[in-house]
Design goal:
Layout: E1 3-6, E2 12-16, E3 25-26, H1 32-37, H2 43-68, H3 79-98, H4 105-111
Antiparallel strand pairs: 1-2, 1-3
């Protein structure tokens, strides 16, 4: 539990492990003012942020599908949208290259039913 130093308006200025001059008030770690000072979202905000991130991935997949079916071209999108899509794709590709691969492509082909054919290239 941190000790809190406040300004003249009552806003939290700093947190301290020990009581010191001007920081005598003790607040629990989960107190809303402590969390706000540390820029930690509450559970509802964190859950909503996760939903937003998941939804962004869905939109990205929808755009990829539309482009793959030649219903739209990447150049139909504004330049800013193109840049953001390419940035996300590049980040995801770099991240997936760094991840641990537990199965070789041959192993994956052996696990797929015969009707599935070859393993599609990594996205």
């Amino acid at each position: 539990m941190p000790y809190v130093r406040r300004d003249a308006t009552g806003a939290v200025l700093s947190l301290h492990r020990q009581a010191e001059d001007g920081a005598q008030e003790l607040l629990p770690d989960h107190h809303p003012e402590v969390r706000a000072f540390l820029n930690q979202p509450d559970a509802d905000q964190a859950h909503f942020a996760r939903l937003d991130a998941d939804f962004v991935r869905v939109l990205e997949d929808v755009i990829d599908t539309l482009i793959g079916k030649h219903l739209i071209n990447i150049t139909d999108l504004p330049a800013e949208a193109q840049a953001k899509l390419f940035s996300r794709k590049g980040f995801r590709e770099r991240r997936s290259l760094q991840s641990l691969s537990l199965f070789s492509e041959t192993d994956m082909q052996q696990m797929l039913p015969a009707t599935e054919g070859k393993v599609p290239p990594a996205r």
